[in-house]
Design brief:
The protein has about 375 residues and is an alpha/beta fold. The chain has twelve helices and ten strands. The relative contact order is 0.17.
Length: about 375
């Protein structure tokens, strides 16, 4: 493992949670529909809206939507290599999805999409195709199980197969990449590449500020925990996680953990995309959402199974880039994740912390490093 960090690993290791589950799930069925995109990102010569079949964390069939962007020129022999880009958080309601924005003719893309464009544009100009899932439940009839590592990884993987099935100019050589929510999804896809999905030539993972180790933090919350201002940044995330967990695990009775305030926020979670929700909960501590502790064994086990980013199973290179001025994904948690990957024997991991970079500029700040790394993996 190659680590370049000013953060002490031994301190961060105390924050490490359990490893993600690597349960094999049956391959998904072929893609269902493809249409020309009404709007392209810079660098794309053509684009398509794709609706495709995948599977959720329970192995049940599901539908996801996403976008496919092709570079200009003549495809190389075997087709354009592919980057499966996993988006950062947009929200959990259909109105937040990129597919919905395109359908509605919105003038602006979700912020998470805008943040990724410096890298995606350069990838397209360098001769890589880009596919990007909206995940299960965003723009479809299912609920979005926010930060569920397995369902999101499946959506990241299956869009590569679905796009290649529909477009012969695409190869099945691919890299998983993503930011924040998508950084975790890309990692989980990489860990599951040998056990899930149609046969493909998977090359590795590029992850920016991946959400991780929340399963170690959230069980510390209870209505009696003193308020710590730094934890207020968790409130919006907790609302989305509990919304997804409530649908994924109805046996858990998530509502029994919620205060009246918590039930109101979780019940209306689909109505607010992430930027609006973060504004709405300014001054609301995560403890205020709860009427009982999240530390009981049933909830702790459920959070670990639902959230954990896998820390084993990787057979291809993994690169993690993290801004050290990030207040959304704490750098200590990403350092802890990298330390656990090392501890569990994942040998080809590169951790690149960047002083001064925030959650919102990490992609632009590292594009000169990330672009050649991804292109080398695709060669």
């Amino acid at each position: 493992m190659k680590i370049r960090s000013t953060v002490i690993l031994s301190t961060a290791a105390a924050l490490i949670g359990g490893a993600g589950l690597l349960t094999p799930i049956a391959d998904a069925a072929p893609a269902t529909s493809i249409d020309v995109l009404p709007r392209l990102i810079d660098g794309a010569a053509a684009g398509y809206a794709l609706s495709y079949s995948t599977t959720d964390e329970h192995g049940r069939p599901a539908i996801a939507r996403g976008q496919v962007y092709l570079p200009s020129g003549t495809p190389p022999p075997g087709g354009w290599p592919v980057v499966s880009w996993a988006k950062g958080t947009v929200g959990i309601g259909d109105s937040c999805a990129m597919s919905t924005a395109l359908d509605d003719g919105a003038a602006e893309d979700p912020l998470a999409v805008e943040l990724s464009k410096p890298l995606l544009t350069q990838l397209l100009r360098s001769g890589a195709a880009v596919v990007s899932t909206d995940y299960i439940g965003l723009g479809t009839s299912d609920a979005h199980h926010y930060l569920n590592s397995v369902s999101e990884a499946n959506a990241v993987t299956d869009i590569v197969r679905a796009a290649a099935d529909e477009l012969p100019e695409l190869s099945r050589t691919w890299v998983a990449a993503g930011h924040s929510q998508g950084g975790a999804a890309a990692l989980a896809a990489g860990a599951r590449a040998d056990i899930y999905g149609a046969p493909s030539d998977f090359r590795g993972v590029m992850s920016f500020a991946p959400s991780s180790n929340l399963e170690a933090i959230l069980p510390l919350l209870s209505p009696t925990v003193p308020r710590i201002a730094q934890l207020d940044s968790v409130t919006a995330t907790l609302i989305y996680v509990l919304y997804g967990l409530r649908d994924s695990r109805p046996d858990l009775d998530v509502d029994s953990y919620l205060s009246e305030v918590g039930r109101s926020y979780v019940g209306q979670a689909e109505a607010s995309c992430i930027s609006d929700l973060r504004q709405d909960v300014i001054g609301v501590a995560p403890q205020q959402l709860l009427t009982r502790s999240l530390s009981d064994p049933a909830m702790t086990s459920a959070l670990r199974e639902y959230l954990s980013v896998p820390t084993k199973g990787y057979s291809r290179p993994v690169v993690i880039e993290q801004g050290l001025a990030d207040t959304v994904v704490p750098p200590a948690l990403t350092t802890a994740l990298s330390a656990e990957l090392l501890a569990r024997g994942v040998s080809d991991v590169t951790y690149l912390p960047l002083p001064g970079a925030t959650h919102y500029d990490i992609i632009a700040a590292t594009v000169d490093d990330a672009l050649p790394r991804i292109l080398r993996l695709l060669r």
